[in-house]
Amino acid sequence: MSIQALKDALPPYAKDVKLNLGSVTTTSSLTGQRLWGTVLACALATRSARVVAEVSAEAADHLSKEAFTAAKAAAAIMAMNNVYYRATHLIGDDAYSTLPARLRMTVIGNPGVDKADFELWCLAVSAINGCGRCLESHEQVLRAAGVSREQIQDGLRIAAVLNATAATLDAESLVGA
């Protein structure tokens, strides 16, 4: 199971997705842990069983047990936070942003890996889940930690390509060839 298996499964009309899937996993400016943690967290955020299976098998070869668990935690916590913070933002009443969330999210403060790595994974998952408030927050933390815009952009590209891969493969399974 691998990224190559996902590339091989993409239909001819998704050639651009296929080429991008290869490039985001081989030409990234990210460290190995940041890259594969981002790929894993994004795969989980797509909720595509096929993408999760292929990516998790390969990511396990590149990540420590702690980093693998932290990437899963990033996807899990952002699944909750992205809904909450996106909703409080979209309601349009600024009073909601002054109320305490009263949601437990201690893993963000103590993820078990480098904080900047975890923040990048959270940012990428937030891109898939469409939460502007979380994107802004995680981008600010990353920039303050010295992460370059190019590295943040790499994380966003990974999110976009994994999401497109999942959407294409899941659609193909529904409509057939």
Automatic annotation (TrEMBL):
The keyword Oxidoreductase applies. The keyword Oxidoreductase applies. The active site is at residues 131, 134. Disulfide bonds join 131-134. It comes from the Bacteria. Residues 99-171 form the Carboxymuconolactone decarboxylase-like domain. Pfam families: CMD. InterPro entries: AhpD, AhpD-like, AhpD_core, CMD-like. Its EC number is 1.11.1.28. Antioxidant protein with alkyl hydroperoxidase activity. Required for the reduction of the AhpC active site cysteine residues and for the regeneration of the AhpC enzyme activity. Homotrimer. HAMAP family: AhpD. Belongs to the AhpD family. This is Alkyl hydroperoxide reductase AhpD. It comes from Nonomuraea longicatena. The gene is ahpD.
